[in-house]
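Supplementary Methods S3. Complex input for the 1,3-dihydroxyacetonephosphate-bound model.
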Amino acid sequence: MSVPKKIKPLVAGNWKMNGTGADLRELRRLHAGLAKHKFGCDVAVCVPATLIHRLSGMKFGAKIMSGGQDCHGAEKGAHTGDVSAEMLKDAGAKWVIVGHSERRAEVKSGGHGETSKKVRDKVLAAQKAGLRSIVCVGELLAERKSGDTLKVVGAQLRQSLPDTCSAADIVIAYEPVWAIGSGLTPSVEQISAVHGHIRKALTRRFGDAGAAMRILYGGSVKPSNAAELMAIANVNGALVGGASLKA
Ligand code: 13P
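Predicted complex, serialized as structure tokens:
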């Protein structure tokens, strides 16, 4: 197997259910900031579906790519309120987040109860539409405490990814559920162990493509800890929630 060329990091913002048209101002500021620095990363912002078209019209080109936060697994049909991958693409999106823990969460706790099988269907739909997927995996606090982190993350990864994955169209995001929006971050050793485990699983299954796939870390990433987190082996960028709302 050949050694992958240096992996270009991706920093992706996830605005979640935040933002209206006026908030796109922040992205003008971000764009101006990026122009001032030599920034060796790809940058994407996954805005609410209602803003994708407007963001795409802001002509940031490849400097700030736009993305959606979810898509349906079917191409079209009677799915009131849902958005297909092709619709996101048509609105200008380049990326889509799939399998975020806020969608995997049980319905009774406000989530959508999405299984990894459903996530896999969404990845396939995104591939078909020509969108790149950010596939999220991550353990609950109880799973971390019971020592099941690697088992849980490994199973999510196995079941969420179809066999047809390339480094160009799939990015993995490891987001421990207990670190999201909590201000808590795992230790460097904990992140390193999970990212190393994901890298091994990807390489075993996809060979060179798995060795070259980007693995992002997400969960309470902010300006004060970003540099330290990005320096960890096998961390190839970040998926940023709350902190991405500010340029
Ligand atoms: P926070 O950065 O707000 O913890 O959110 C992380 C996240 O869920 C990104 O998808």
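The radius of gyration is 17 Å. The chain has a mean pLDDT of 96.
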